[in-house]
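hiii so my PI (J.) wants the whole complex modelled not just the main chain, which honestly fair. so below is everything: two entries, each one labled with what it is. i double checked the lines twice but i was tired so who knows lol
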Amino acid sequence: MDKALFEYLLRLGDDSLVLAQRLCEWSSRAPTLEVDLSLSNLGLDLVGQAQLLLGYAGEVEGQGRDEDRLAYHRDAEEYRNCLLVEQPNGDFAQTMARHFLFSIYRELLLDELVGSSDTRLAEIAAKAVKETRYHAELASDWVIRLGDGTEESHRRMQDGLDWFWRFVDEMFAVDEVERVLIERGIAVDPAVTREAFDARVTQVVKSATLEVKPSTWPQTGGRQGNHTEHLSTMLAEMQVLPRRYPEATW
Amino acid sequence: MSSDWPLWEVFVRARGGLDHRHVGSVHAPDAGIAIRHARDTYTRREEGVSLWVVRSNEITASDPSEAEEMFEPAASKIYRHPTFYDLPDEVKHM
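here's the output for the full assembly
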């Protein structure tokens, strides 16, 4: 088994899956019907990406685990998502701050992965990048609308960015697993995209009359399975049905 | 809250060459987000290739109480229908 590739696919797939679950928590709770639909749509795009990535991960592993098995029968410490996506939704501005930072990171990453030497991964990236570009545009619109909105929306949007900024560095960190894959032309060196990320974020944040305040206490560990306490609570809810009734179908 | 946001009328072009047709309305705080809401509400199942939104209060409507004088006079003007003209065979698209 190509262990590094398996790990990398889990990282990509788990980012999608965990964020999808968070977004779908807004169902029936969003401020308006339109926003409810919008957030669920974003979530469903990510579920689709997770299916492809985790399905491929299961094939690479070769132990007979499909995407559902990987999604529902791994505990938090086996998840490889970054810490940003597992953080609770907070208010709508916080959810948008999280989605804004993640989608821009992810769009730039997928743009590069389209050229991966792993053709299957390149194909998945080509499909996902269009959806993700839309996510980044939508989230940017909201950051601007809320930042350059009322006094209250401005304050909440700035709070959201301030809170989530501590999870940004982790998305661009490279460990031994990724280094090997970067050398093989399979993975992307996120450092390549960091400059573009900072430029895009700064441009939107400026037109939103907000500011980026560098975090003094960056958080990492998700890629190695060291998660915040929020992930296991989220997974408990997400996994309860297939774990309680392993034969259930729907 | 949606009641704080203006209403926008949504028009969808189903495919190239067809007109934009009115499909419904959405609430949104600005035009850009109205387009996004229209996309997510009305084109999730490949219903369109182009969207228009327009502020509902920018539309001037005819007064329903004037419907009688507005529309009924047309009823007796049957000669306005082009069915009485003999068309030359060469004219294809009428």
